Amino acid sequence: MLHSMLKAARFAWVFALYAICSIVKVYAGGDQFEVHLNGKLVSKQFVINGYRALTVQLSESDRNGDLTILYSHCGEKGTNRVVFLKDEKGNIIRQWRFADNSSRLMHVPVKELMSTLKTGSTLVLSYAAGETKTERLLVKISVINQRNAVVHRLHFPALAYASLKIINYLV
């Protein structure tokens, strides 16, 4: 009886170690980003094939706020960082450049975003740096008439959510 319990416990440990190694192997060294609206996390994603940008809806009550972006290249801050605001056709409407010696956090005033947005329209916020070969889509932004902003979140599968927790713990 004791032998079978030890065997089951050993199997559980081996399986847990295999699962953790598989998760870390998939995401280790990859890029990730966070987008905060007025200090509240609205998007946190790993840049992998097939990730989808979330839509952040701004309202008039957000006008004096701040959109903060933290983009990590394998745990490091990028160089020659630029955040672009584009229309649906991909035309650049506005851009913000961030110095290499500045903070890891990139701040974009919401009033600058809202000055170019019309109610009902959707624009795209993207990121580029010396470390990226192409621009990275961060979030889609739209304006609504309601008092508070609403964020449409993706429903992460349990494994993807667990991997975020494990990697954040390891980093």
Walk me through the structure.
With 171 residues, this protein is of the alpha+beta class. The protein has one domain (30-170): Immunoglobulin-like. The protein has 3 helices and 10 strands, in the order H-E-E-E-E-E-E-E-H-E-E-E-H. It has helices at residues 2-27, 110-114, 158-170, and strands at residues 31-37, 40-46, 54-58, 66-73, 81-86, 92-98, 105-109, 122-128, 136-143, 151-152. A 6-stranded mixed sheet has the order 6-5-8-9-3-10. Helix 1 (2-27) crosses helix 3.
Looking at this protein, list some descriptive labels.
single chain; 171 residues; alpha+beta; Immunoglobulin-like; six-stranded mixed sheet; four-stranded antiparallel sheet; 3 helices; 36% strand; elongated; disordered C terminus
Can you lay out the helices and strands and say which pair or pack?
Blueprint: H1 2-27, E1 31-37, E2 40-46, E3 54-58, E4 66-73, E5 81-86, E6 92-98, E7 105-109, H2 110-114, E8 122-128, E9 136-143, E10 151-152, H3 158-170
Helix pairs in contact: 1-3
